[in-house]
Structures are given as C-alpha cells and as structure tokens.
User: Fold this.
Amino acid sequence: MRNTDAFRRWLLLALLLLSPPLLALDDEHSCALNTAEDPQLQQALEGLVTDMGLREATERGDLALSLLVLSDPEHPRLAQINGDEMLYAASLPKIAILLGAAVGMDEGWLKPDRHLRQDIQDMIRYSCNDCANRVLDAVGGERLLQVLQSPKYAFYDPTEGGGLWMGKPYSKAPAYHRDPLKGLSHGATTYQVARFYCRLHQGDLVSPRQDKMMLKALGHPGINHKFVKGLAKQQGLELFRKSGTWQAFHADSALVRRGNEAYVLVALSRDRDGSDWLEQLAGPINALALKGP
Assistant:
C-alpha cells in the first residue's frame, strides 16, 4: 500500500511538472488587462488631456489614448480614453504584418531570405510601403487576418470594439477585406495595440526568437516625429515604436523602457493638428508613467 501511495504521489508530481502552466490557456496570456484599470492613473491622464486643451477632441472621438504602465510585472496599470474605439490608423497596423511574419517564421511556413528580412526592418523603422507590401504578400492577407482573430492572439474581436486590422496593401490597389465594424482598411484600437506591446515586452507574443526579431525591427525608430520628437530630450529611454500618417489621421505607438521601468503609450487621432498633439502629449505622459526624472 505504501509503495502504491508513493507511486501515485510521484506520478502526480510528474504530471504537474510536465504539464503546461494553466496561464497558457488564457488567450491574453500574461497580459490579461481586464483588471488593470487604475482609477488614479485614469484621473491623471484625463486631467492632463484637459489641461492641454484636448478634452473636446476626445469627446468628439477624434483622439484615443491608452497608457499601460508595466514597471510592476505583476500589477500592470491601465488608463484609457476611447481605448476601444476603432480609428483609421494609417501605417501603424504594419505591426500586424510584422506579427504575421513572426508567426510564419515560427511555424515554418514562411522562410524569408535576406531581402525579406530587410523589408521587415524597413517597413517598421522607416515605414516603407513597398517593403510592407512585399512582406504582406509573403504572409498572405487573409492568413494574416486569421492570425489577428485567432484565440491565441485575439488582436481583433468584433464583440469588443474591433482592434488591429490589415485589409489593404499600402498602394492604390483596392482593399481585399475591410473590417466588419467600420469598413476600415487599416484600423486599430489603442487598447489592442497596447496588448500587442505588452505581450512583446513580457516575451509572450510568438516565441523568444521571433519576439527578439520584432523588438529589433521596432527599435531605433527612423522617423523623428510625434512620440519620438516629443521624447527626444528625455534621458535614458529605449523606444520600440511604430507610427502612421495619412491626410488628417495621425497615429503613434511605443513601448518605452528605462532601466527596470516600462510603459506602453498608444494614440490615434483624426485632426490636421494630430501630429502636434501626439508630440506634445509624449513628454507629460512620460513623466506620468515613470517614477523619477
């Protein structure tokens, strides 16, 4: 009997050790943000927007913001204004193409040569449209939409306001699949973009190798405007960033790290002055998100 009980205990221990963590079953993985809303951070963000004269823009739906503070990995803090409202996001959804390429390489159905790897870098760092189109062709437009909507990633959910959407090349070619909610060809919500960066920051997006590839592409931004320009005078920051501009639509997104501190800032705007808004917001929000100078 003793030997039988000992064997059962050993077997149970072995099963626990060999089984994947229960958290892996959560489709938001380590960035489950449904309890991350922080009233104090929310009040501060809303006050900052009001002080900068942008409250009316948020009320019109012309400005959306998400601020996600990740300095304490166990307790992310989230504040949002219009975070679940989809807007046209111009080149920002090229991060969706980046994700699709990473998934393809990880699963083995995309085997890029050095030219495609260079295109991946340039479509993010310099927002090269031709580069983005070549990577999109390699991934496949409909396949990419399947990745975005899959339970593993869930970056687009029509029951939750939508999210990241890529349904058209960056050319005069027509859209091949507009988003079901607003008919956008290149769309996003600030919340879902914040989730993307959160999972990337925590090393829980695709795989260690592909997450490193994506961070490399997003690092050392090659366009000096919006968040990058607004944070240029800040010391010790490491930025991983993708922006977008088309006519009156201005978008920016960044994972910002300084030492052991980190935060994600995402903004979408629909105004000819939107680029200036985002530049002016970056510094004060950086001060809000980080503890010291």
Q: What stands out?
A: Confidence is low (pLDDT under 50) at residues 1-28.
